[in-house]
Specification:
Number of strands: 14
Structural class: alpha+beta
Helix content: 25-40%
Strand content: 35-45%
Amino acid sequence: MTVTTHVLSIPLTPRDERAAWHLRARLETVCAEDAALATEDGPGGEIVLKGSGEPQLEWVIGHLQSQADLAFAVGVPEVRYRETITRTVDWTYTHKEEDPPQFAVLRIQLTPLPRGAGVETEIRCPSDEIPPHIPLPEFRRAIEAGIHAACMAGVVEGFPLTDLQAVILDAGWHDTDSTPEAFEAAACLGLREALPRARPWLLEPVMMVAALAPEKFVSEVTADLGRRRGRLQTLAVHGGIAAITALVPFADLAGYDNDLRAMTRRRGASAMAFDHYAEAPSPPDGSESPPIGPRA
């Protein structure tokens, strides 16, 4: 199964409820026709359109704006970063509530994983260290639900977490107050408390860019890709046309199609596709503070 990675999003704010209904219906049709598009609800009632690149979203929005019954405002595009951790942490968290009574203790170990691994969970408690009144499958579901809920938003800039493993090494409980809900809360809140100690870091989407241009413009095209933090992958010339591929952070590709056409006197063309997520650059001062990623 192919998983589409959305690297750019734009919030669309309908004028009123009627306009929102029409816009949602039209977006459903558009997304059904193009699997690289998707929508989600924004925190302020807006509809967030997600896609795989700038030209794609510009075309969709232009198409929607040309329809008289769709009244909406277009927000600022946002690069869809991810967050991860770069250090292993062993953390014990105690969850205690009085109303309703809840009690649960979890020892959680967070470990970084390779890029593309996602979020993994594992329970390594010996069987006699798991609450006997909670069946293991139910205990496991509660832990996994809490961990995945915590990973919905990181602590650097609130982007989803990825590429980490959360291992439950130990648990403490009370015979009556320790419920699956208590352990779900402990897993979520414990992971959130451990995250800042695991040296969280921002991950930026990196695109594979393919550019075609007349051979005489090769130096300009490659120099421009270098200024965009690009890493040249291949360069071949056939019949006076240069084919160039490079890995380039998506945040530095704003306006690339127009810039390429301008520097090649409208004789260049390009295409791009998501390749992987990579750690965003460290701060200029060389500190270990989580970096604030650039915006498109």
